[in-house]
Write a structure and sequence with these properties.
The protein is α+β, with helices and mostly antiparallel strands. Helix content is 34%, strand content 21%. It has a 5-stranded mixed β-barrel with strand order 1-2-3-5-4. Strands 7-6-8 form a 3-stranded antiparallel β-sheet.
Length: 270
């Protein structure tokens, strides 16, 4: 006789009850498009937590279907092939089915080809995952962001300075979710940003000339141009972009705290 854990979750109401989640503050929702069964989809585990006695609910980031939630039935059993596969930062090929918001995981296979994250890089990886969970709406495909995520993990494992890798990813995430303005043009004058000018960035509109007194971070025009071009060699660009992205992310998260960000700040001042 099948156990409770092996029963299908077959309607949206049950799925919502099993995995409640707040709508991402900065995400732009689209009408979800769900298919009955998907095979061999590239994906990564973002987060997982226990469900009933032997199963897991897994938040995944997939290339063509965006962030999805799946039930991995029996994954906590010692004999389950999923037990050692559903690990963060490991490239997977996943198959799943269902039309509700919470799908059923059919299979997951380790693809390989990536070095493991270690030490500070591992904490940076958890920071990336937390950003994706909190800023991406479910069932909103972002294949370009998926590729950027893979590139960022590889950069971290190959010694790219963490502050630079994180800034590039943060900027890409805001662009992909539709909340990042062009930093190279002043919104009040429509003129190009002057490298030697001083600016603030309105989270809803973009860059404008800084006033005498500002409550928002003031950055140089050069920093804004460097960020748009992903040039972070200048120490001033690194310092100012850190403060600016912290401000913009806090705004689009609606004040929701980032636990891994605070740990990074405390340990590494990233």
């Amino acid at each position: 006789m099948p156990s409770h854990d092996d029963e299908l979750i077959d309607n949206d109401q049950d799925a919502h009850a099993a995995a409640p989640h707040a709508a991402p503050a900065g995400a732009r929702r689209r009408a979800p498009v769900r298919e009955g069964r998907i095979n061999g989809q590239p994906g990564f585990v973002l987060h997982s937590y226990p469900y009933k006695e032997t199963s897991l609910i897994v938040d995944m980031f997939t290339r063509d279907h965006g962030r999805i939630g799946v039930v991995a039935k029996g994954a906590k059993r010692p004999t389950s092939k999923l037990r050692g596969v559903l690990q963060t930062f490991q490239p997977l090929s996943v198959s799943f089915s269902g039309k509700s918001e919470l799908r059923t995981l059919i299979d997951a296979e380790w693809v390989g080809g990536m070095l493991p994250l270690e030490k500070a890089a591992l904490l940076c990886g958890f920071y990336l995952n937390e950003l994706l969970v909190k800023l991406l709406a479910r069932d909103d495909p972002h294949p370009a962001l998926f590729n950027h995520y893979v590139s960022t993990l590889n950069e971290l494992t190959h010694g790219e300075p963490a502050p630079i890798a994180l800034r590039k990813f943060e900027r890409a995430l805001l662009k992909e979710t539709g909340v990042a303005a062009d930093l190279t043009r002043c919104t009040t004058t429509r003129a190009a940003v002057e490298p030697d000018g001083l600016y603030v960035v309105d989270p809803e509109r973009g860059a404008r000339t800084a006033a005498a007194v500002e409550s928002w971070p003031i950055v140089s025009g050069k920093t804004l141009v460097d960020m748009e071009r992903e040039h972070y060699a200048d120490p001033q660009t690194q310092a100012q972009s850190k403060q600016l992205m912290r401000f913009l992310l806090a705004y689009h998260l609606g004040g929701a705290p980032l636990n891994t960000r605070q740990i990074l700040i405390d340990l590494m001042q990233l």
